[in-house]
Amino acid sequence: MIIDLEKLKDLDLKAFFFDMDGVLFDSMSNHAKAWCSAFDDLGIEFSAYDAYMREGMTGASTIRDAFTRQLGRDASEEECKRIYKVKSHYFESLPPAVPMEHVLDVLKTVKAAGLDIFLVTGSGQVSLLDKLNYFFPDIFHREKMVTAFDVKKGKPDPEPYLMALKKGGYEKNQAIVVENAPLGVRSAVSAGIFTIAVNTGILEDKELSGNGAGVVYSKMQELYTELPEIIKRSKMIDL
Fold first, then answer.
1. Where does 5-27+98-235 sit in CATH, by number?
2. CA–CA separation, 180 vs 177, rounded Å?
3. What is the pLDDT of residues 79-105, one digit of tens each?
């Protein structure tokens, strides 16, 4: 899908905010398998589609949501910690996630334009956070990250993206978000930030556009192709 460049005319672009799972790393299938296995151990029905639809939530929120829907009660803090530990064990046992194809090209284009880069993720998987510097050297820095360890509510609440704006000292029209998850899109849009969705998973496009994405791409290469023009129109520069 080609972006409507008129949507960018009110931006004064200074930064890009990137989600991690499903945007930087092709890791969502592993997360889905791990969640399904952890909930199956408890006799709780939870599908891969459920996992993709809830991507971006903190682990505790995902567990509480499943308990409320399936068991009719909230999960205790102890249960959340125990189940998330099991989920993490399943996740770590799966083959390592690799970077999304063309995402490094996207990051290099953003950096070359002199724009700030933030990570905004609901993940607390240390293995993926450790991989950032290995796969994307000198692009991500800890002081420019918002993770599950930094927030209380998490996506779909606007809190993570509002926190990124605050950390960077930016106004909402000075950033663009790149997301792949419905709840992540809703979080960013609720924070008032223009949001690009890249549908790298199993969801229908309507799950992303329906939550307010300004444009939905079917793969990262499409974003990479249009990115120079997006930056030019948002920042009024020549690359």
1. 3.40.50.1000
2. 10
3. 999 999 999 999 999 998 899 999 999
